[in-house]
Amino acid sequence: MLDKQLEAMMAQAQAAGVPDLCDLPPVAARGLYRQILAAADVPPADVEVGEHRGQVGDSAVQVRAYTPRNAAGPLPIIVYWHGGGYALGDLDGYDNVCRQLCHDTGAIVASAAYRLAPEHPFPAAPEDAWAALQWVAEHARRLGGDPARLAVAGDSAGAVLATVAAICARDAGGPAVRFQALVYPAAAGGHEGDYPSRREHAHGPTLTARTIEYFNHHCFGAAGKAPDWRGAPLFAPSLAGLPPTLLQLAAHDPLRDEAKAYGEALLAAGNAVTIVEYHGLAHGYISMGGVIGAARLAQVQMAAALRQALGESRRRLAVSGEPCHLL
After folding, report:
1. How far apart are CA 170 and CA 205, in angstroms?
2. Residue 222: what are its φ and ψ, rounded to 5°?
């Protein structure tokens, strides 16, 4: 059953006549997506914010770094990529999500922008994601961070970019990524497979099959399928040697089964993986923590896993001498 708080929120959206994102051209859909993100988000956490720009190869890098106030560095760093089907979303829309993640983890959160489709189709987004990870690792000290305590994270399309960046880092011999936190990734990149959730939740309640197709065509072209593993990490040549993973799923999500398949593939390749499914939630819950209690719990869980993996718990234990139970 759908979470009652989410059910009420969706009823309000329906009564207000909010259209499906795929019924709008990309520019208008981006504006509506910002409104959707803001509608149920947590209040902005009081953290320090800095804007940074750079260049890695042919990719321009834009990073918004969130740092806990009065924190003694160097701090762990989490590179975060926003969702939006590679066509929507931006740093402003995910400002509260990243502020809260910074506050919850005590780490620097480097929110990385990337070029959006259809103006910049595949492989622009994964190229930018890989460039951002390299730039953050190289400039970690400048950001007040510790390059030895680096994690990647993201939701939906951003979760794909996070794990693709981790695969690229493995293949390049660095940067060393200690952990990846992935929230409902579109891991099959539009390719067919045994994914019953695509049919079961084709009509939402949040993400619909029509909108997935809309995103896939904008990003991947007429075929609507990722041309290679950088848009469909489930089909990467090898998933061995990747960092420990927290994979969060939403039960009422058409992407649930392909995301679960990715987690199982990571496990089969010998990686440490924790898969958690939130039974009452739907796609997009990462920005609903201000209204939906279970969504806030998912945010807290992700933060706890990151904090533990990046050594924050060990540092606090050394300082306080008190037990710390994170999960």
Report:
1. 37
2. -60, -35
Could you state, in order of their start, the residue ranges of all structural domains in the chain? 4-318
Pairing of strands 75-81, 59-67: unpaired
**HSE of 304, CA atoms in CB hemisphere, 13 A:** 11
Q: What is the DSSP code string of 250-280?
A: EEE-TTHHHHHHHHHHHHHTT--EEEEEEEE
Is residue 125 within 8 A of residue 136, CB to CB? The reply is no
**Strand arrangement, sheet containing 245-252:** 48-56, 59-67, 108-112, 75-81, 145-155, 179-183, 245-252, 273-282
- Alpha helices, DSSP H, located in the chain: 4-15, 26-39, 95-105, 124-138, 140-143, 157-172, 197-200, 209-220, 256-268, 293-309, 312-320
Point out the catalytic residue in the list 146, 253, 257, 287. Answer: 253
For the question of residue 218 being annotated catalytic, the response is: no
Global pTM reads: 0.94
Catalytic residue (choose from 156, 197, 218, 252):
156
**Residues 6+ away with beta carbon under 8 Å from 2:** 10, 205, 252, 280, 282
Architecture of domain 4-318: 3-Layer(aba) Sandwich (3.40)
Read off the pLDDT of residues 187-221 as tens digits, 9 standing for 90 and up.
999 999 999 999 999 999 999 999 999 999 999 99
Known active-site residue 287: no
* Whether 253 is catalytic: yes
